[in-house]
C-alpha cells in the first residue's frame, strides 16, 4: 500500500512537472513568434519645436523594428500628417525609405489658424495596433499676421510647471508595491508617486503608520514626485501614509497585504542586476517560472523545480541592449503573479558623436564647415543615419531634458503615462542618483505595449488587416458598362507612359478588384489602365470594351485620430516664446520690404498698367475652363479653413446647391452634370475628394449650363489643385480605358541655405533665421570618412544649439547636443 502511494505521488509529480514544462515551452515559443512578428516604431525629428505661419516644418522620419530598433524589414512607406485641433488632417505626405529614415517638409500657410497642431507618423502595418502607438508630437503654431498673443503658449503649460513648490493643496498619492502585491511576512519595496491637480513636481514629506498609529518609517519625494519606502507587512495589520497639509493630517491607505503570495525584489547596480524571488506558500516557489524579456525578446528564463521559499540570481548587463526590461514570475498554474520593470543602461552600448567645427567662433555671414562621425566605445567607426538642426537658442531654447529619439525609443514608446523631461535620465552617464530615480519610474509605470494575455492566448488567432507596404499600389475595380454597373472580372492592363514605358497585365477577380504594385517612383507619371470584358485579343468586338474602370484612393484612408500619447514641447518659458515671435515678426517684415523693393524695380521697367491680384487670379482660373465665367464660384484660396471638408460639405456652401444623403441638386431640379477637370464623371467618382484636393468649384445654371449638352439640371465643375496629394488626378474616362496622372512618393524640398559669397539676393536682403541650418539625412558607414557639412551663418550674433539625432545600423539611438557661438 505504501509502495503504491509513493508511486502515485511520483506519478502526480511527473505529470505536474510535465504540464508546467509544456507551459514553459509555450511561453518561449510565443516570445519567439512575437520577435519574428515584431511591431514597428516611428520617430520624427523636426528642425524646431514650434513655428509661425508662413514657415516650413522640416523633418526626418525614422522607421525601425520595434523590438531590436534596427532597420525594419517589413515596411518601406511612412505616412506623416499635420492635424489641427479639431482632428482634421490638413497636410499629408507619403515617404519612401530604403534604409532607416526619410525626409520631408510641410509648408505652413500664412492664413492658417493658430493652435496646437499635431504631427503624426506611422506605417500601414502599424495600423494593426492601437493608434496610440503612432508617433504623435504636439506642434504649436502662431499666426503673427493676426497678432496672436502669448496666451496660447502659457494657457496650456501652467499645468506642467517644472519648478518645485511646497504643498498647499490636497495631493494625489499612489502606491506601487515592487512586484504587484504586498505579502505578509515578506519585505517589499513600495514606490510612491505624488502629484497635485496641476501635475507639478511637488515636495511631500510624511510618515508611514500602521493601524495602531505607530510610525513605521518616513518618506520624502524626490524629483518628479517620486519616493521609495520598504515595508514588512504583519498579519492583521493595515498601513497608511500620513501627511500634514495646512496643519491638518491627511491619511492615504496603502494596499492591503495578501496572507500568501509571491514577491520579486530587484536591485539594479548598472553593470549587474540582483534578483530575489520569494514566496510564503506551502510549496514555496516550486514549479514557478521566471522569464525576463526586452520588448518581447527573451533575455533570461528559470524554471524552479524545488520547494524553496526563495532564491537569488545575478544577471550581468554587459551583453544586453539598452531599454525597459520586464521580469515576470508565473505561479504553478501558469498565472503571472509578479511583474517588475527595470531599465538597462549598458555602458558598452555607448556611441560617441565626434563633431569637429573648423571655426571656434565664426562671424556673421561666415562659412562654417563641420566633420561628423560616430565611434563605438572601442574607437571603431559606426554606421547609421543621422539628421541635424541648428537653431537660435535665444528664440528656440536649449535643453537636454526634452524628448528625443533616445527617450522615445527606449522609454516613451514602451511605458504607460506621461514622462516629464525624459532626457533628464540620459544627461549624465553612470549617475547613481539618476539611475535610482529612473528605477522609481520603472516601479510606478506599467507595461503598455506588451501584455501576456495577448502574447500567450490571442497572438495565434490574430489576423492583420493592414499589410506592410513596400511601395505604391494602384488599385480599383472593374464594372460592366450597363445601367446596373455590376462589378465583373475583366482583363486589365496598366501602362506607365514614361521615357521607358512599362506595362503589366492582371485579371481582376470575381468582385472586379485589381491591384498593381508595389512601385517606387517620385513625383508624377502619366498612366493608362485598360480593361476588356474578355481579353486584349478580341478588340474587333466593340462590346469587349464595355467596361468601366474605377480607381481607389487609399492615400486618404487615414486611421482614427487619438491624443492619448502626444509628446509635448516645453513652451513654459515665455521669454523664449516672446523672442521667437518677435524674431518671426522681424523676418516677415524683412520679407515684405524685400518683395516690395523688387516690385518697385519691376514697375520702373514695365510701363503698362498692372492687373490687380484679384484680376490675375480670376484670369488664371478662367484659363482652365472652356466656358469662361461661371454662374457661381468657390475659390479655395479664399476658404483655406475648409480644406478638411468633404466634397459634399463644400458643395453645400454654394448658393442654390442642395446636398442630402450624398445626393446633389441645383434648386431642386434634379442631379446636375458633374465634371472633374473638364471630364464628365459620376457622383461616386468624387466621393473621396476633400477641400485639400480642390482649387476651385464652378456652378453653371440656365444659359451658362447650356455650354454642355444634356445639362438641363445645371453643371458643377470641379477643378483639382495643381500638386495636390491626390493619388491619381486628371482622370479621363472612356469605355475600357482611363488616362490619369499617378502621384509618387513625396520628394522633400531642399532647405534654403543662403550663399553669402556667390548669392545675389542675399547681398540686398537681411538674413535672420531661427533655424540656421537643417541637414535631413547624414549617412555614415563604418568604413567611410566623416561626413562633411557646411553652411553660412546669418546676420544674428547669437548662440546656436546643434542637435543631432539618429540611429545606428545596430539599433542604438543617437542624441547629441552642443552649441555654436556666432560673434
Q: What proportion of the residues is helical, as a percent range?
A: 10-25%
Biggest sheet features? 5 strands, mixed
Unreliable residue stretches = 7-15, 150-165, 598-610
The backbone outline, from C-alpha atoms, is globular
Strand content: 35-45%
Structural class: alpha+beta
Provide structural commentary.
- With 823 residues, the chain is of the alpha+beta class.
- Among the domains are: 171-344, no CATH class; 472-519 and 524-553; 613-726, TonB-dependent receptor, plug domain (Ferric Hydroxamate Uptake Protein, Chain A, domain 1, Beta Complex), CATH 2.170.130.
- The protein contains eleven helices and 46 strands.
- Strands 2-8-7-4-5 form a five-stranded mixed β-sheet, with no helix packed on it.
- The termini are far apart.
Describe the secondary-structure layout.
Blueprint: H1 2-36, E1 40-46, E2 51-52, E3 56-65, E4 77-83, E5 89-96, E6 101-107, E7 115-122, E8 135-142, H2 151-155, E9 165-166, E10 172-177, E11 188-195, E12 202-203, E13 205-210, E14 215-220, E15 226-231, E16 239-245, E17 248-253, E18 262-268, E19 272-279, E20 289-294, E21 297-303, E22 310-316, E23 323-330, E24 336-344, E25 351-357, E26 367-376, E27 384-392, H3 393-396, H4 405-410, H5 432-444, H6 452-458, E28 472-480, E29 491-497, E30 502-507, E31 513-519, E32 524-532, E33 547-551, H7 574-605, H8 613-622, E34 632-635, H9 647-651, E35 657-660, E36 663-666, E37 673-676, E38 679-681, E39 694-700, H10 702-705, E40 715-720, E41 728-734, E42 737-743, H11 761-764, E43 771-780, E44 787-792, E45 799-808, E46 813-821
Parallel strand pairs: 2-8, 9-12, 37-40
Antiparallel strand pairs: 1-3, 3-6, 4-5, 4-7, 7-8, 10-11, 11-15, 13-14, 13-16, 16-17, 18-19, 19-22, 20-21, 20-23, 23-24, 25-26, 26-44, 27-43, 27-45, 28-31, 28-33, 29-30, 29-32, 32-42, 34-39, 35-36, 37-38, 39-40, 41-42, 45-46
Amino acid at each position: 500500500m505504501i509502495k503504491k502511494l509513493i508511486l502515485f505521488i511520483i506519478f502526480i509529480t511527473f505529470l505536474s512537472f510535465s504540464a508546467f514544462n509544456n507551459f514553459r515551452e509555450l511561453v518561449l515559443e510565443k516570445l519567439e513568434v512575437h520577435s519574428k512578428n515584431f511591431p514597428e516604431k516611428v520617430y520624427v525629428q523636426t528642425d524646431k519645436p514650434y513655428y509661425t505661419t508662413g514657415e516650413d516644418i522640416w523633418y526626418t522620419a525614422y522607421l525601425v523594428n520595434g523590438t531590436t530598433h534596427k532597420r525594419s524589414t517589413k515596411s518601406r512607406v511612412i505616412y506623416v500628417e499635420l492635424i489641427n485641433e479639431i482632428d482634421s488632417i490638413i497636410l499629408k505626405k507619403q515617404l519612401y525609405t530604403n534604409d532607416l529614415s526619410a525626409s520631408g517638409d510641410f509648408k505652413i500657410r500664412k492664413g492658417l489658424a493658430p493652435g496646437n497642431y499635431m504631427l503624426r507618423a506611422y506605417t500601414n502595418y502599424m495600423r494593426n495596433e492601437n493608434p496610440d502607438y503612432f508617433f504623435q508630437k504636439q506642434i504649436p503654431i502662431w499666426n503673427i499676421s493676426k497678432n496672436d498673443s502669448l496666451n496660447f503658449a502659457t494657457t496650456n503649460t501652467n499645468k506642467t510647471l517644472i519648478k518645485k513648490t511646497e504643498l498647499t493643496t490636497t495631493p494625489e498619492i499612489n502606491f506601487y508595491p515592487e512586484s504587484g502585491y504586498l505579502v505578509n511576512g515578506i519585505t517589499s519595496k513600495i514606490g510612491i508617486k505624488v502629484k497635485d491637480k496641476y501635475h507639478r513636481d511637488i515636495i511631500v514629506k510624511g510618515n508611514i503608520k500602521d493601524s495602531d498609529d505607530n510610525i513605521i518609517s518616513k518618506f520624502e519625494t524626490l524629483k518628479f514626485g517620486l519616493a521609495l519606502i520598504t515595508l514588512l507587512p504583519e498579519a492583521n495589520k493595515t498601513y497608511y501614509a500620513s501627511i500634514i497639509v495646512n496643519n491638518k493630517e491627511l491619511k492615504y491607505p496603502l494596499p492591503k497585504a495578501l496572507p500568501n503570495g509571491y514577491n520579486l525584489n530587484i536591485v539594479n547596480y548598472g553593470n549587474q542586476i540582483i534578483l530575489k524571488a520569494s514566496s510564503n506558500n506551502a510549496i514555496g516557489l516550486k514549479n514557478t517560472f521566471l522569464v525576463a524579456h526586452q520588448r518581447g525578446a527573451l533575455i533570461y528564463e528559470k524554471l524552479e523545480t524545488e520547494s524553496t521559499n526563495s532564491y537569488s540570481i545575478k544577471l550581468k548587463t554587459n551583453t544586453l541592449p539598452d531599454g525597459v526590461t520586464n521580469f515576470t514570475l508565473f505561479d504553478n498554474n501558469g498565472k503571472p503573479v509578479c511583474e517588475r520593470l527595470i531599465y538597462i543602461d549598458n555602458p558598452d552600448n555607448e556611441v560617441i558623436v565626434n563633431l569637429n567645427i573648423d571655426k571656434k567662433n565664426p562671424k556673421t555671414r561666415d562659412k562654417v564647415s563641420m566633420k561628423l562621425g560616430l565611434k563605438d566605445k572601442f574607437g571603431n567607426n559606426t554606421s547609421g543615419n543621422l539628421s541635424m538642426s541648428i537653431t537660435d537658442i535665444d528664440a528656440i531654447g536649449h535643453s537636454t531634458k526634452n524628448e528625443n529619439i533616445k527617450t522615445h525609443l527606449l522609454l516613451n514608446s514602451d511605458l504607460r503615462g506621461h514622462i516629464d523631461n525624459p532626457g533628464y535620465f540620459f544627461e549624465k552617464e553612470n549617475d547613481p542618483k539618476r539611475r535610482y530615480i529612473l528605477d522609481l519610474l520603472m516601479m510606478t509605470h506599467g507595461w503598455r505595449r506588451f501584455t501576456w494575455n495577448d502574447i500567450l492566448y490571442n497572438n495565434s488567432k490574430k489576423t492583420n488587416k493592414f499589410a506592410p507596404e513596400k511601395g505604391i499600389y494602384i488599385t480599383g475595380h472593374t464594372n460592366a458598362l450597363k445601367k446596373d454597373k455590376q462589378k465583373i472580372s475583366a482583363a486589365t492592363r496598366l501602362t506607365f507612359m514614361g521615357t521607358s514605358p512599362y506595362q503589366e497585365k492582371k485579371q481582376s477577380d470575381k468582385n472586379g478588384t485589381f491591384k498593381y504594385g508595389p512601385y517606387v517612383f517620385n513625383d508624377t507619371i502619366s498612366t493608362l489602365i485598360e480593361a476588356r470584358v474578355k481579353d486584349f485579343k478580341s478588340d474587333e468586338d466593340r462590346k469587349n470594351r464595355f467596361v468601366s474602370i474605377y480607381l481607389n484612393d487609399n492615400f486618404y484612408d487615414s486611421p482614427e485620430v487619438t491624443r492619448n500619447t502626444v509628446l509635448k514641447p516645453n513652451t513654459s518659458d515665455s521669454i523664449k516664446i516672446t523672442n521667437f515671435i518677435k524674431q518671426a515678426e522681424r523676418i516677415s517684415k524683412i520679407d515684405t520690404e524685400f518683395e516690395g523693393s523688387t516690385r518697385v524695380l519691376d514697375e520702373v521697367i514695365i510701363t503698362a498698367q498692372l492687373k490687380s491680384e484679384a484680376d490675375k487670379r480670376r484670369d488664371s482660373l478662367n484659363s482652365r475652363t472652356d466656358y469662361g465665367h461661371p454662374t457661381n464660384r468657390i475659390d479655395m484660396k479664399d476658404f483655406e479653413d475648409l480644406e478638411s471638408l468633404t466634397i459634399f460639405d463644400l458643395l453645400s456652401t454654394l448658393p442654390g446647391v442642395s446636398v442630402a444623403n450624398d445626393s446633389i441638386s441645383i434648386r431642386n431640379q434634379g442631379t446636375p452634370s458633374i465634371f472633374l477637370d473638364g471630364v464628365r464623371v459620376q457622383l461616386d467618382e468624387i466621393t473621396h475628394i476633400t477641400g485639400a484636393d480642390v482649387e476651385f468649384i464652378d456652378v453653371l445654371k440656365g444659359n451658362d449650363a447650356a455650354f454642355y449638352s444634356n445639362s438641363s439640371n445645371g453643371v458643377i465643375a470641379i477643378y483639382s489643385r495643381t500638386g495636390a496629394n491626390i493619388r491619381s488626378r486628371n482622370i479621363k474616362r472612356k469605355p475600357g480605358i482611363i488616362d490619369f496622372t499617378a502621384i509618387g512618393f513625396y520628394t522633400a524640398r531642399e532647405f534654403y541655405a543662403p550663399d553669402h559669397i556667390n548669392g545675389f539676393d542675399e547681398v540686398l536682403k537681411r538674413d535672420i533665421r531661427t533655424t540656421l541650418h537643417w541637414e535631413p539625412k547624414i549617412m555614415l558607414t563604418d568604413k567611410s570618412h566623416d561626413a562633411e557639412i557646411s553652411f553660412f551663418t546669418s546676420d544674428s550674433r547669437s548662440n546656436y544649439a546643434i542637435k543631432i539625432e539618429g540611429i545606428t545600423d545596430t539599433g542604438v539611438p543617437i542624441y547629441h547636443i552642443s552649441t555654436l557661438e556666432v560673434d
